Structure formats: structure tokens, C-alpha cells
Amino acid sequence: IDAMQMGAALSNYFQNVMPEYSKQLSAEWLKEVSQRKGVEMFVTDKDTIYYRIDAAGSDERITSNRDTVSFHFKAYTRRGSFVESTADRANQVREQIAKVKEDKSLAEDARQSRIDQLTEQVAAAETPNIPLAQFRLPGAIEGMKLVGEGGQITLWIPANMAYGVRGAGADIGPNEALEFKVELLEVNPEE
């Protein structure tokens, strides 16, 4: 086998074989999830989301994708590997703050300015407050509508309502379904 053939074989594997295999494994996993006690399904125009309401929350609910929401989340792959969370994102920014504080090459006023910018980012990462439509995952957008303010929900999201065939970085493969735990802290209806 020459280099061209090897390249073609690898390209086929990563672009076709791996995504198809992951799609099959995700479908099997979602089928298993659907049979768990307390899990319900929500059918959208794109696919089926499985969910479990862990706390219903108040009667204040999302009524539009333009409503602004505050929330915490934790994301896991179908294999159970932790992907990210709002707390994790905030900790990454805190680590940047620590590095800036130690960086003696910056002038004091420049260092303090950068620390102030990063401190604002910590709050935004720890408790996002965004219009729902800005959220990256269609499955999470739909799922958050199932609980009220203060509610908590576990979502099992098919790949086409998460990151799809492209996946996301090294942690989320192509066509990978996700488990997503969300706490909806606040709902501010569109004005």
C-alpha cells in the first residue's frame, strides 16, 4: 500500500466509517436510555430528545427562543466522559487570572485591566445569561423549555440536535449523542 492509498483509507475511515459507527452506537445508547425509569421522550421536528425532570421549577417558563435565560450545565458523552460545565468554564478563566497576576512583564495598570476583564468573564462563564437562541445545541434549547425557573432536567440529546457529524474537539466525536444536565436559574421573557 502506498502513501496515496493509505491517505485515502484514513480519509474514508474518519469521514465515513467512524461517523457511521458512532451514529449506530449513539442510537443503541439512546434506546437503552429510553427504557430507564422516569425517562420520557419529547419529539421535535428534527428528532426525539429523551429527558428526566429532576425538579420541575416554578410556573415561570421559557415562551420564546428570544427569552433571556440564566443556567448551569454539565455535559457528558454517551460513554459517560465529562465534557464541560459552566463551573469548568469559570475555573478555566480563574486559571487565566492567576497567570496574569503572576506575569511581572505586564505593567501594573495593564495587569489590573486584564484581571478586571477576566473577572467579568468568570461571572459570564459561571452563570451564562443569554437569549436562549444563542445557545449552541438545539436539543438543549428545546429541553430547557420543559422546566420552569429553578427547574433541573437531564437531557439525552441525539447527535443531530447536538454537534452532529462534525463533533466538537477531541472530546465529542462525530454523530455522538450527549447527556446534558441543566439547572434553569432564571427566565426573563422577551420584551
Q: Could you walk me through the main structural features you see in this protein, from its secondary elements to its overall organization?
A:
With 191 residues, this protein is α+β, with helices and mostly antiparallel strands. It has four helices and seven strands. Strands 1, 2, 3, 4, 5, 6 and 7 form a seven-stranded antiparallel beta sheet that branches. Strand 1 and strand 2 (48-55) form a beta hairpin. Helix 2 runs antiparallel to helix 3. The model has no long low-confidence stretch (mean pLDDT 91).
In short:
Strands 1, 2, 3, 4, 5, 6 and 7 form a seven-stranded antiparallel beta sheet that branches. This protein has about 190 residues and is of the alpha+beta class. It has four helices and seven strands, in the order αββββααβαββ.
Secondary structure topology:
Elements: H1 3-34, E1 40-43, E2 48-55, E3 68-77, E4 82-85, H2 86-102, H3 108-126, E5 129-131, H4 138-144, E6 152-157, E7 178-188
Antiparallel strand pairs: 1-2, 2-6, 3-4, 3-5, 3-7, 6-7
Main attributes of the structure:
39% helix; alpha+beta; 4 helices; flat; 191 residues; seven-stranded antiparallel sheet
Mean pLDDT: 91
- For the terminal residues, how far apart are their CA atoms? 64 Å
Radius of gyration: 20 Å
Order of helices and strands: HEEEEHHEHEE
Which assembly state applies to the chains in this document? single chain
Can you count the beta strands? 7
- Give helix % range: 25-40%
The major pleated sheet works out as: 7 strands, antiparallel
Indicate the low-confidence ranges by residue numbers. Answer: none
Shape: flat
Strand content: 15-25%
Give me the secondary-structure category: alpha+beta
* Tally of DSSP helical segments: 4
